[in-house]
Design brief:
This is GNAT family N-acetyltransferase. InterPro entries: Acyl_CoA_acyltransferase, Bact_Acetyltransf, GNAT_dom. Its EC number is 2.3.1.-. The protein is of the alpha+beta class. It has one domain: Aminopeptidase. The protein contains four helices and five strands. It has a five-stranded mixed sheet. Strand 3 and strand 4 form a beta hairpin. The protein is globular.
Length: 153
């Protein structure tokens, strides 16, 4: 059955929270605090400048989602769109679901005048890396560094 890609709605928050928790566990064996995660997902809907979620549906049932955030590039005088929090339910994997979501992000980004798409991937996640390369994405020459400043609340 064909996929439908749509903007997520507040009614999707419970699924988005569940899928983010599953993704964190599957990729990093990281247990996220459900209350913080729920507030974080809801925060995207409360302040749309933070980004937006897309949901993929098959036969009216949501099977995947991703988050898009924006980063201003002074070097390029434009926004990079970051693809984050990608999750496809196990039964829908390897069936073009992410490819369809990616195509919609690419379409929207081009229409909005974005200068590029970016994402980060776990260094050991070879399947995801191959998928992204297959879509024409190129590995960057940057390392990512992080310093947590405060406990999220």
């Amino acid at each position: 059955m064909p996929l439908q890609i749509r903007a997520a709605e507040p009614a999707d928050v419970a699924s988005l929270v569940q899928w983010n928790a599953a993704m964190a566990w599957e990729t990093e064996q990281k247990q996220l605090d459900p209350a913080i995660l729920a507030r974080g997902v809801a925060g995207v809907f409360e302040q749309p400048q933070r980004g937006f979620y897309l949901v993929a549906e098959r036969d009216g049932t949501a099977v995947a989602s991703l988050l898009v955030t924006r980063e201003w590039s002074d070097w390029r005088n434009g926004d990079f769109w970051w693809i984050q929090s990608v999750y496809v339910i196990p039964a829908a994997r390897r069936g073009g679901v992410f490819r369809a979501l990616y195509a919609e992000v690419e379409r929207r980004a081009a229409a909005a005048g974005a200068v590029g798409l970016r994402l980060y991937v776990e260094t050991e996640n070879r399947h995801a890396q191959a998928t992204y390369a297959g879509l024409g994405m190129q590995r960057c020459h940057y390392f990512m560094y992080e310093m947590p400043l405060a406990a999220a609340s």
